[in-house]
């Protein structure tokens, strides 16, 4: 495979002292200003286009009609349960007949299929799980998730009469979790009509279908329907863990501490894919005291994870400040960029520079690094950690470029990461190395193939790395391989990935001009087109920051792949960009 070498055929580089003086003044003004939180982009026009292209209307009645036509009578749960059991029968013909019957039931059996699938995964009934997964994928393949999500957002915008009842009826047939989340948001937007709570929502708190109970609870919290909150809080003791989880996540937003024990308790009953929002909340609250434990994929693992978090909760219950959640979610709106400086022109020129811009694209600080910087991350109030490729070291510098700490890497670092405990992970093509503040090694993994292109260490001590051929590895602290699967190939040496709380990874697919997300099992779950991306970062608002060294663009994209912010640099080739 041909590696795209950064820094070839660059334009001439020139610096204007007058412009530099002006920038310094702008930086001083920017430092005094308080950054404004980013607001979600208005997707109305794009959502209307999605529906228009498939011949659907987007006024209120048309939106609700779309959902009504795709709402089916519930299949008999007892019949579905019997058919699911038959898919694990010893007789092949019985298994095949049950599969065919469930396939015909289609969307009417989807809700029950998903619910029972979770139970069977815990029971390790492999044949039932395999066939159920195949059925769910087959049914959902026809489910039009993009159209459903656009419909949900437009309902939230137009608020047609009767929307709450229609959405609740439709929810069991939503294509996937992302679509369900969009409809829960839409329910919150239509929960109050003419100053009164929609009766369908209060009634749904006691519905027999779990997703309806959970969605109604979330909608009432979003709508700040105070009179209904006692009924919502009752669902913290619901018999279905997925309901307890959604209710607890939403009550946490109201700073309700009664929701915390429920988040911890749910760890024992649900999968990592379902639990990542809960883990994210707990980690933000616990900070450096977070237990070094993975969300479990087995009964034993789930119990161990719950026990570890329960220990933290018992020890800290009296001093947990839920206000930290608001602080953790607020981005300053600053983007640090590390790039190769332009070559050519007169005089001795820098081989690289590190700088930071605010949301209005004003440079806050900037300095040169002569040893080819390729990665940088802000690690303190006025400190930035840098991977210096040609210098064979990592350095920590102040915002003027003065070195305050450095560590020889005995190799060429391509990435760097500061851990919560103050340790530093150094990524090289043939080695991953973690050192403490004194420079002593605390972790090392050698890779003789010299093929590591991206790597991240996770909060629980595990490490994810991706090779140039697109092999994803997740290893524990003893270098034991926990996961290995194929993702996108890596054809650009410098750049970044982001490992998500649910175990998935969002990454640049340079060759195919896109950003792609894989779940923790290696299944592609989403993508959008970007020309020649080489580094990505998933932001707290769900958007993705994408850097393209070839186009010299650093842009923010929403979940649908729409560009909502752009910075173009003409002073060099950017290798990495990170928002803070």
- Our count of domains comes out at 3
Q: Count of helices? A: 18
CATH superfamily of the largest domain: TolB, C-terminal domain
Percent of residues in helices: 25-40%
Low-pLDDT sequence parts: 1-39, 344-349
Q: What is the subunit organization of this protein? A: single chain
- Can you tell me the CATH architecture of the largest domain? 6 Propeller
Overview of the molecule:
This protein has 580 residues and is an alpha+beta fold. It folds into 3 domains: 44-190, no CATH class; 255-328; 331-579, TolB, C-terminal domain (Neuraminidase, 6 Propeller), CATH 2.120.10.30. Helix content is 36%, strand content 24%. It contains 18 helices and 26 strands. The strands form 7 sheets. A 4-stranded antiparallel sheet has the order 5-4-3-26. A 4-stranded antiparallel sheet has the order 6-7-8-9, with no helix packed on it. A 4-stranded antiparallel sheet has the order 10-11-12-13, with no helix packed on it. The protein is globular, with a radius of gyration of 26 Å.
